[in-house]
Amino acid sequence: MTRMETSKINVLLLIADAKPQRDWTDHASLRVWPGGERIPSTLQPDVVISDCPQLLRAALTNSRLRDSTQFGLILVGCESAGRSADVHLPADATGRELRLACQLLGNLVQERRLQRSRVGEFQILAQWALQDPLTGLANRRAWDQQLQELANSGAALTKPLCLAMLDVDKLKHVNDARGHDAGDAVLRAAASGLRGALRASDFAARWGGDEFALLLQDVPPQHARAIVERIRAATDRQIAEQTEQTPTLSAGVVGVASGTVIQTDRLWQRADAALLKAKHAGGSCSVEYTPPGLQAE
């Protein structure tokens, strides 16, 4: 195996015939490694050229060549071995013809690689835009989008759901007494506890500051408070285990029956009102919203 490199295009030669190999690499802009040398660990070829299916087949087992979408392939006077060629050249191809094919194919490969990289970067940026950097949960923007999708459907729910708003009790005391790093540790532990207690179909977000929000699918209203209370208590235990501190959570709960047309603003107001009652009751509990004039159970 031999590697040649133009000013911009990395080319790996897998050539059995020594004479055309000398002809093809006789160019001032090329650097040539001795034949038979292993592929350097830093090599990411843009183009692979081969006149020998056996050499090509063996090289394709190399970890850097296993992803055949990452390079272009030029076959010279032979048939494909393991993947389709991008360019076929006759056995008597000249060095000039080969270098031109390398340049054109290499530029195309590099452009495709750059486009894939940009797509990956955009996906990462899009994820970051919807993720809270401290806890790794969805952020408020992602939560608002989730509620907006519910509101935009305009249709009655086919399954019941539960919306809950949770607040870390006395987090300010932790920040004041032990510093904001300790407070951040509590928030991360709370997020970890929520993730561990939720199902894949549930949605959790850090709504802001010391507040979290939950959207639980397929939860009957009569079970909403009990389910949120189990989640809340499990999260309390996680905070204590991870931080050796004693902050707890309070939760305001709203259950929504199937057949209901969602009004997200009203749901959120009710969850907030229930959370306020939980805080006034001393915290570390879950309170379900009840309409004015009705006694909560």
- Helicity, in percent? 40-55%
Strand order of the largest sheet: 1-2-3-4-5
The topology string of helices and strands comes to: EEHEHEEHHEHHEEHEHE
CATH homologous superfamily name of the largest domain?
Reverse transcriptase/Diguanylate cyclase domain
Count of individual beta strands? 10
Largest sheet: 5 strands, mixed
Q: For the terminal residues, how far apart are their CA atoms?
A: 79 Å
What is the CATH domain class of the largest domain? Alpha Beta
- Principal-axis shape equals elongated
Q: Which blocks of ≥5 consecutive residues have pLDDT under 50?
A: 1-7, 28-36, 293-297
Judged by helices, strands and strand pairing, the structural class is alpha/beta
Mean pLDDT figure: 81
Tally of distinct domains: 2
Number of helices: 8
User: How big is the Rg?
Assistant: 31 Å
CATH architecture descriptor text of the largest domain: 2-Layer Sandwich
The CATH topology of the largest domain turns out to be: Alpha-Beta Plaits
Strand content: 15-25%
List descriptors.
297 residues; alpha/beta; Alpha-Beta Plaits; 2 domains; five-stranded mixed beta sheet; elongated; disordered N terminus; disordered C terminus
Describe what is shown at a glance.
The chain is of the alpha/beta class and 297 residues long. The chain has helices at residues 18-24, 53-59, 95-129, 140-153, 171-178, 180-197, 221-243, 264-280; strands at 2-5, 10-14, 47-50, 72-76, 87-89, 161-168, 203-208, 211-217, 249-256, 286-288. The radius of gyration is 31 Å and the shape is elongated.
